[in-house]
Amino acid sequence: MKRLIAVAVAYLLASMPSGARAGDPQFGARSLPGWEAVGRLNISGRNMCTGSLIAPNLVLTAAHCLYDPASGRAIDPTTIKFEAGLMGRRAKAARNIAKAVVHPGYRHSQRGGSLMGSDIAVLRLSRPINSNEIQPLRMSLNAARGDSVGVLSYNFTHATRPNLERSCEVLAKQRTTLVMSCLVDFGASGAPVLQVIPGHLPRLVSVISAKAALGSRRVSIGTALDSTLWRLMQQAG
After folding, report:
1. Which of the residues 28, 51, 165, 219 has an alpha carbon 20 to 30 A from that of 87?
2. DSSP class of residue 21?
């Protein structure tokens, strides 16, 4: 784990691809119950991340998505739009962001060192999304080494349709930092890491922060959920 933390990690905040075309959803994203709660974060019309609806008026994403990748300055959250269940040109629901609350332990660094273990933020929507329309994802604080998980994300190559990696593994856990075998791409920052158990609805256990390398092996870094999340949700309102 110490060796992994020492290597360079890459932020997954992506510039919006110009003229991005809608392709077929990969690996059956629509077969995942509750996939509509995951959406693209359109950041000032220039950059993108992924977010998850965790309450009718709240979205969970990565904290570094709230900082400009070039200047490192904080982004005005009201310039961000959440497009839930985006599939091609249509979103199941779209809302502007009214407020953002960042994990108290997060310190932004363009070099990526600040990602470890605190890279989460909660966004309050300008208007709630009716639960009859989209059910928020359920959450769990029980991510553990050896767990089988999946990642649902929008990314640079799948900017308008969600991409599902159905089966990857938690390789290591140190406090709230997870190292996973999941393969993610730019734009997947903030994407939900989902514990998927047959016969049960998926549970959100972590948020994607970055991609990295463990020797020659490609891995991803995530922030596991803990009790801090409830405080962030209360502060966001």
Report:
1. 219
2. P
